[in-house]
């Protein structure tokens, strides 16, 4: 996916900060890839470059056969809308819209029709099948979180990015979020990339990389991951 990424910032005193120092990364469908590492190690910079929100000084990022570091801004934002999904720390749900309307909104803004059957099956698999016509305030925090995941997935993105997906959650909701990300990777077959310093997220990863001073190292890889389909979501049927 990414080859030879470098991104240098200039500090106020004029010195160079190597936020990305020759980073290579491959992500696969059906796997949860976790990028761990301390604060300041370059994780957010990497996510931004992988997602086409920032450009590297050198190196390339291929998504769906296209080098996203080459196109113009319009090509890039179009690629982002069509090929990538994002799970943010805050769910950014709009209170005056139902879950269904929230999920459909990004695609509608992009002039596309939502596949209702796909929405329903994603919602069903995350235990939200009966909740699509509820408003966010009528849903638990965990349900709101899973609505945001369905919204990220409904356009069938090639890669789903999650930036510190458990950081703003309590222990139980954090564990549900991890189970959801695994479900999305193992059962729905998406490539999921999570940036996190939460040891539980790190433990759940099929491939775990660690970032340190702008350099990325593979620390663990579970070869069996992609054939290991997860059982039914543990919260299915709970409210
Ligand atoms: P992480 O997400 O792992 O905490 P970041 O990618 O945010 O790390 O930052 C990596 C390094 O780059 C840090 O030293 C940070 O201070 C520096 N950095 C990040 N963004 C900027 C910026 N816009 N200008 C200057 N330095 C930056
Ligand atoms: Mg960060």
Description:
The protein is of the alpha/beta class and 239 residues long. The chain has one domain: P-loop containing nucleotide triphosphate hydrolases (Rossmann fold, 3-Layer(aba) Sandwich), CATH 3.40.50. Helices cover 31% and strands 25% of the residues. It is built from seven helices and ten strands. The strands form two sheets. The protein has a six-stranded mixed β-sheet with strand order 6-7-8-3-9-10. A four-stranded antiparallel β-sheet has the order 2-1-4-5, covered by helices on one side. A hairpin with a 5-residue loop joins strand 1 (2-10) and strand 2 (16-25). Helix 3 packs parallel to helix 5 (141-153) and helix 5 (141-153) runs parallel beside helix 6. The N and C termini lie far apart (38 Å). Mean pLDDT is 88; it is low at 225-239. The structure holds adenosine-5'-diphosphate (ADP) and magnesium ion. The site of magnesium ion has 2 residues, from helix 1. It comes from Nocardioides phosphati. InterPro entries: AAA+_ATPase, ABC_transporter-like_ATP-bd, ABC_transporter-like_CS, ABC_transpr_LolD-like, MacB-like_ATP-bd, P-loop_NTPase. GO terms for molecular function: ATP binding. Residues 3-238 form the ABC transporter domain. Keywords: ATP-binding, Nucleotide-binding, Transport.
């Amino acid at each position: 996916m990414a080859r030879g990424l470098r991104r240098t910032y200039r500090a106020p005193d004029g010195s160079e900060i190597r936020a990305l120092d020759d980073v290579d990364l491959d992500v696969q469908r059906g796997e949860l890839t976790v990028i761990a590492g301390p604060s300041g190690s370059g994780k957010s910079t990497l996510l931004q470059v992988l997602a086409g929100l920032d450009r590297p000084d050198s190196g390339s990022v291929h998504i769906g056969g296209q080098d996203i570091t080459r196109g113009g801004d319009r090509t890039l934002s179009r690629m982002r809308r069509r090929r990538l999904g994002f799970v943010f720390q805050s769910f950014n749900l709009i209170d005056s819209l139902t879950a269904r309307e929230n999920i459909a909104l990004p695609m509608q803004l992009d002039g596309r029709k939502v596949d209702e059957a796909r929405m329903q099956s994603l919602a069903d698999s995350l235990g939200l099948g009966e909740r699509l016509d509820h408003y966010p305030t009528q849903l638990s925090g965990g349900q709101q979180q899973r609505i945001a995941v369905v919204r990220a997935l409904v356009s069938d993105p090639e890669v789903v990015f999650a930036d510190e997906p458990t950081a703003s959650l309590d222990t139980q909701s954090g564990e549900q979020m991890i189970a959801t990300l695994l479900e999305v990777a193992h059962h729905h077959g998406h490539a999921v990339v999570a940036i996190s310093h939460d040891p539980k997220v790190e433990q759940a990863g099929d491939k775990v990389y660690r970032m340190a001073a702008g350099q990325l190292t593979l620390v663990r890889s579970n070869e069996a991951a992609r054939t290991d389909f997860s059982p039914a979501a543990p919260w299915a049927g709970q409210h």
